[in-house]
Amino acid sequence: MATVYKSFLNDDVISTRTLLHEAIPITGSIISGTYAEANIKNFSHGKFQSVYDYPYLSSSANHIFDVTMGYSTGSGLSGSVDAVNENHKIQMYNQMAQILAGHGEDGTLLRFDEDGNLLAGGAKIDEAVFFSFSRLIVKDEIKKGTVQLVIGTGSYADPFSGTKTVSDYGAATTYFVNSPAGEYGILYTSSVDTSSQVGLVYYQAGIMVLTASVFSGSDFSSTQTIEEAITGSSIQSFCDGVRHRVRDIDFNNTIELNSSIYFCRINHNEFNYSSNPTYLSASQIRVKNESLDSPVTYITTVGLYGSDNELLATAKLSEPLRKSPENEIILRVRLDY
Prior knowledge:
Helix content is 12%, strand content 39%. By secondary structure, the protein is mainly beta.
C-alpha cells in the first residue's frame, strides 16, 4: 500500500474514443440451411425464424439473426380473403414500426418510408421482410456504408440465375437520425440510381427492413408469386422462401472502446525511495554502496487511488524501470471501458 501520493492535474487525464470494426460474412449456405435445416429454428407461435451458425441444439451453436415478415393495414394486400395468419403479419409489421419508426404527432403509427422521410408523403414500405441480427455479431452497431446483401431473382428452381446486390451506398456520410432506434440508412440496388430504394438498415438496432418486392422472381416459392406468398403463406413458409433467395449478407460491425488515459509524471526529485521494508538493511539503503551515492528505486507498479486514498486500479509494468534523481519518467496508464 502506498504511503506517498501524487495528485493528477487537469492536463494529466484525457478521455478518448476508439472504434474497432470486424468483418461479418454470412454465407448463403448457412442462411439456407447448411445442416439440413438443423440450424434453422421454428417456433410454435410461427411469427419468426431464428438462424444459427450450427445445429441449434448443439451447445456450441451461436444465434446469428431472426427473419420475419409483415404488412401494414395500409397495404393493398390487407384484408385479402385468402390471407393466412393476417393478424400475425400485421402485428409483426406494427411491432417493428413502433420500435424503428415510432409515432407521429397525432399518435398514429408511422409506416416505413423508402426515402427515409417518415413524415412526408413518399412511397411507403407496406410489405416488408425483417432481418434482426444478433448482438453477438452486431456488437455496438453496424458500420455505415458496409452493408451488402445479394439476392436471387431467378426462378424458384434456379434462384440465382439472376441477382440483385442491395447495399447502403453512401451511408457513411448520408444517413438519418429521426428514428427512436437511432441512426439508419437507405438500402439501394444501384450506387448511381437514387430511385432504386428497396429498404432501410438501422445501425444501432442491427435490423434490416426490405420491401418484399425485392425478392420477386418468376415464382417466389415452388407454387406462388411474391404477392400470393405474402398473403397465402404462413410467416414460416414465407421466411423459407426468403432464405432460399439470399446468397450472402456482409457488413462490418463496430465496437466502441472508451478510454481514460492517465499521464503519471515522475519528476527527478520524486519516488526515489521505496517504502518497502526490505529497502533498508540495518538503517542503510541496500542499493547504495557509498553514502554519497544517489538513491535508486525500481518502479514495477502504478496504483490509481480515489479521493480517500482507496486503491481503485493497478497497472503492472512489463519490466522494472530504474528511477533516481538523475532521471524523470512519464508513465501512460490507459483504462478501457
